Amino acid sequence: MFRGIDEVDWASLRHAYGSAEDVPGLLRGLASADPAERQTALDGMYGSVHHRGEVYDSTLACVPILLALAVRPEVRDRAGVVELLVSIGDEDGARGDLAARARAVLRTRADAFVRLAGDADAGVRGAVPGALVRFLDPPARVLALMRERITVERDDKVLLALTESLGLFARRHRLTSDAHAAEAVRLLTELSRPPYGPGLRLAALGQLAGCAPELLPADLVPAVVRLLRDRSAQRVAAAGDVYEGPGPDTLAGRLLRLRPSDEEGSRLLRTLHSALGSRVADRIALLCGQLTSPDPLDRCNGVWMSAGLFREWRDDHAEPVTLIGGQLGAREDRLHDAAVAVLVELGELAAPAADQLHALVTYRPGLRIRHRERSAPALGGPLKALAGAGDARAAPVLAEVLAGPVVPDDLGLVIPHLGRAALPLAPALRRRLARVPLDAPDLHQRAVPLLSALTALGDAESLPAVLRLLRGLPDGLRRRDAVTEAAVRALGVFGGGAREAIPDLRGLLETDCAVAAADALWSVTGDADAVLPVLLRELTGPAGDRRRRAAAVLGRLGPAARPALPGLREAAGSGDAWARATAACAVWRTTGEPEGFLALLRSTWARHPRTRRTIAAHVSALGPAGTPLHDVLRAELADPRRHRPDSGGQGIREDLGLLRECREALAGRAHR
Residue 268: what are its φ and ψ, rounded to 5°? Predict the structure, then answer.
């Protein structure tokens, strides 16, 4: 099986980390008798030879040897080898000549997978259907083989793999061969009905949702919930969750241990949710069915799947969020931790679970602070979620934490979510900032959250503590450090109450913090002449974040920024989309007219969602003068999909902020 391996000039080939001279050792490791060595070798193949789905010349050279390993019965863990080959040849993976050549080799050697379809190892049989669909021709032969395997197969996991591959086959051939796709759909329809078991029927329904949604039953959600509960009852009765030990301490082993306890159930429902897509009402109803299951593993899967829905869609999520809150009292740590993690992401959307969160932080004070090995203590998830929801009941609990012996440095980050309810915390935050050692190695982590909190509260009484920090920084740090930026932002918010800081701000106008200092100086003094030269210099400097920020500050100056109009117009025609949009908005705010930039702002809004909050904030600041873009804001408010659905929990918070900006702008209240 290693014939010819030593004839390959591996040292001349490359993988993700350079020379491929270590690849023969990895290939031999895949055939080792030692499970840890096999798993380590598979780690290495994915980590270097097929790094992040890429195909290198060394990957191509491995394909014949991997095929030889896959067909040798004495090799253990051949399913992993087949899965690796499927990933290398996946048309949705790497592009380019090497990837195409790898796929061509796999197609010419696809008969190897035909032989493996009836292998004695169920793991191999389960990995093969994906290879058959991708590499074997003609389609009629693939269908016949799949139909035969469904008839004779008795292993449930292999039947699930066959069902999922039928769905892939139908999606691949529906545009090129209606007859073959129709036959695959017919087989899926059969598999979705009795006498097949609940797990297989769930799998078939998930695949039908992706390739033939018109054939789904009218009572899809109740049917799926019934099947899910039947499947869970069977799994529990069969004691299918027996703990099998920790396994090898390798990357692959650790990843396996991080998977859900019921990974199969997670995959089945995730497939269905993904296929249902924009049918949000059905997906919410399905989530509620999952979250009310008697089986904690079903509920845990439902919690994690809800996160995907919340990140993408702006529907009314009150019912599933309430049910997620109900999991906080679960005895299973995995379920409790999943619920906390999702609620932390949701920000104000976690409000329906606030009662449960408040009860948790009240009666289990040990959850208020999370102690971490080799890291500073952090705010506990339940308290972070309660504060993130904007619930005023978090403020007294945070006050108790602030008065305790251990205060997490990230506590200040949640204060802004509480608004005026957090005002009583200002004295304690102020005192804590005043005690931060100026030579602390973790000064940034300790000071910036506190400065952010006091800035959000507009606490002008913290001026002495802020100035102590700003003036006490070493000169090198003061000129460019994020702590300086945070302190300067606080001074800007204090406005006229920070006149004592005018010399300090002037001293920063020639540093890397010049834009922030100019912004704050304008807020404190209202003297445009003092800041315009600095902002013009930054505006015409090298393209980048400083130019965009200078344009944003000039926009806030309004008509006082007229001397900067030539530079702003030039900036609106160059740089990245965010910088162009910021400069165009600044011109509009300075002149009171859109000046031909409406088309630019509309196209930027459509093509670059990251810019939307910036544009909406500028339109909001214009008040009634922002009317020419109000139609865009109305369309945004009417869109059921979040503007950056791939940005995780941060995307949810940004989206909620965008919606607030849109509503304020349409209300016609000029601000800032």
Answer: -60, -50
pLDDT for the residue 594: 84
Beta strands in 500-546 (DSSP E): none
Cα distance between the two ends of the chain? 71
Does 535 score more than 90 pLDDT? yes
Does the structure show a pLDDT above 60 at 416?
yes
Report phi then psi at 641, rounded to 5. -105, 140
- Cα 165 from Cα 90, distance rounded (Å): 13
Residue of 227, 179, 219, 225 lying closest to 201 (CA atoms): 227
Residue 57 structure tokens: 């010349």
Mean pLDDT, the chain, rounded, equals: 90
Residue 552 makes CB contacts below 8 A (sequence gap 6+) with 582, 586, 614
Q: Distance between CA atoms of 36 and 30, rounded to whole angstroms?
A: 10
At 4 the three-state DSSP class reads coil
96-124 pLDDT tens trace: 899 999 999 999 999 999 999 999 999 99
Q: Which residue is it, tokens 């469904």?
A: 150
Angle, in degrees to the nearest 10, between helices 333-346 and 381-388: 30
In this prediction the pTM is: 0.86
Cβ–Cβ < 8 Å for 672, 556 = yes
Predicted confidence at residue 178, as pLDDT, reads: 81
Q: For tokens 């389960």, what's the residue?
A: 126
Q: What whole-number distance in Å separates Cα of residue 441 and Cα of residue 437? A: 9
| Residue 440, Ramachandran bin (φ over 0: left; ψ between -120 and 50: alpha; else beta) | beta
Query: How far is 518 from 502, CA to CA, in rounded Å?
Result: 10
Range with lowest mean pLDDT among 355-359, 449-453, 473-477: 473-477
Look at residue 243 in the predicted model and tell me its pLDDT: 37
DSSP letter string, 29-98: HTT-S-HHHHHHHHHHIIIIITGGG---HHHHHHHHHHHHHHT-TTSS-HHHHHHHHHHHT-TTS--SHH
Residue type, 231: R
Residue 219 CA to residue 286 CA, distance in Å, equals 11
The residue among 588, 589, 605 whose CA lies nearest residue 597 is 588
Q: How far is CA 490 from CA 395, 455, 505, 586, in A?
A: 21, 5, 12, 23
Helix axes 463-472, 426-434, angle to 10 degrees: 20
Residue 181 identity (one-letter amino acid): A
CA pair distance 467, 205, nearest whole angstrom: 64
Q: What is the mean pLDDT of residues 243-270?
A: 59
Q: Name the residue with tokens 């162009």.
A: 580
How far apart are alpha carbons 381 and 361 in whole angstroms? 10
